[in-house]
């Protein structure tokens, strides 16, 4: 019998303990089998000259949103590590909260692949990502 | 007549003023027409659980090393922005200085493309990147 | 005043003249502002050992579906060339018609970026792509 | 004791039997532990309008050169399949022989990652690729 999938509360707790993204104040907004969305509030430390959000912040959000989307499917007690992260920078974000939605497209026994998008509240895209994880 | 290419001192000065990577304490190690290498000292803020360097730090180093490699070719007064950054995570870095070497493979009138590698002092690879910039 | 967008008949005609994909017998299935779908019938020439569709065929379908999706937006008289094509191979296709749906995510003045998916009639994914075009 | 690594004759023979690239007339030019180079003669079937080599041909060459570079390391009796292939189109090739050189950057127990370049005889780049294989 398969274990129950972790819900929003369990994944939010996991995210709160995840030191590797602790500098980004990410919050879990929603999670279903289909997609996982996190939010990243604007902070001065994420700012590039001109008041836009810097690249590493988007990539951290994408990696984290995908990690939670994967945990939803494989369970909190199992883990996976990032093999590849491809990023396209489409539009600048200006001193605003960034949302990142990740979706698992292939849940293999060894490899997990998906896409993620950083966007504003209205859905305007900032970045587009593809992410490959290996189960461990 | 084409302007003289900026040397190490001018690019180091540019890097010192570049706020978008100010959190990473990057230093310019060497620059030629062929390649540009920066170093990133280990700091607690870059640490993942287990004492390894986190993903965004590698990606910030790659983006910055490529930006300097491009400035070497187009001059400090011209600029370019990151369109795409692809990253493969190959080996973990453990509480150590990371070096990142970037190389321009195509210097187009509009698009610049290159590869970058993060590695230790002996050349062992941590990450491999391809980077696309658009001239502005 | 902007020109009218080309419809299915005009794009199907364009595809019929496009020699660069003439080996793949691609047909336009549907086109809207949101997405463009082409079909690729199975042929022996696309076969790998084991009866699966080979990698270049998927990549040709993705490149072509994106090209038509772009033509829909910029018009048949304007053109764009492929800068980058990233492909993830997710599931094998077995002696069957492959469908490829492409979607423009950023229509810039110089750079156009989108994603494409090859799938079967029921929507099962074979490959996932991101594609970058430059307007010329 | 580890088996001897396959040499040029054994890999050329393997390539000759590899139906999945039989349409491209690829020949093995050289192979060492460091790199593997194949050649692809120009043929009308590879031509795009304007007399340039089409995209799928470059991608087929890159995939094949990497596959042989991997076989060199893991032996002919072991196999690996392509997970991801990223391609940047840098310069057009015009009715000429294309060479493709692949290099393994990480030989993991499960994942193999490398880069490949298609170029002319003098080394001018046509395309740059990164390739991810999974061992099976």
Q: What is the fold's blueprint, element by element?
A:
The structure is a homotetramer of 136-residue chains.
Chain A: H1 8-17, E1 27-31, E2 36-40, E3 47-48, E4 52-53, H2 55-74, E5 80-89, E6 98-107, E7 111-119, E8 125-135
Antiparallel strand pairs in A: 1-2, 2-6, 3-4, 5-8, 6-7, 7-8
Quaternary state, please? homotetramer
Taken as a percent bin, the fraction of beta residues of chain A is 35-45%
SSE sequence of chain A, one letter per element: HEEEEHEEEE
CATH class of chain A: Alpha Beta
Strand order of the largest sheet of chain A: 1-2-6-7-8-5
Q: How large is the count of helical segments of chain A? A: 2
Tally the beta strands of chain A: 8
- Largest sheet geometry of chain A: 6 strands, antiparallel
Cα-atom radius of gyration of chain A: 14 Å
The greatest inter-chain interface is formed by: A-B, 23 and 23 residues
CATH architecture verdict of chain A? Roll
Shape of chain A: globular
Walk me through the structure:
The structure is a homotetramer of 136-residue chains. With 136 residues, chain A is α+β, with helices and mostly antiparallel strands. The first copy, chain A, has a single domain, classed as Hotdog Thioesterase (Thiol Ester Dehydrase, Chain A, Roll). The first copy, chain A, contains two helices and eight strands. In chain A, the strands form two sheets. The first copy, chain A, has a six-stranded antiparallel beta sheet with strand order 1-2-6-7-8-5, with helices on one face. Chain A has a two-stranded antiparallel sheet with strand order 3-4. The radius of gyration of chain A is 14 Å and the shape is globular. In chain A, 46% of the residues are buried. The mean pLDDT of chain A is 92. At the A-B interface, strand 3, helix 2 and strand 5 of A face strand 3, helix 2 and strand 5 of B.
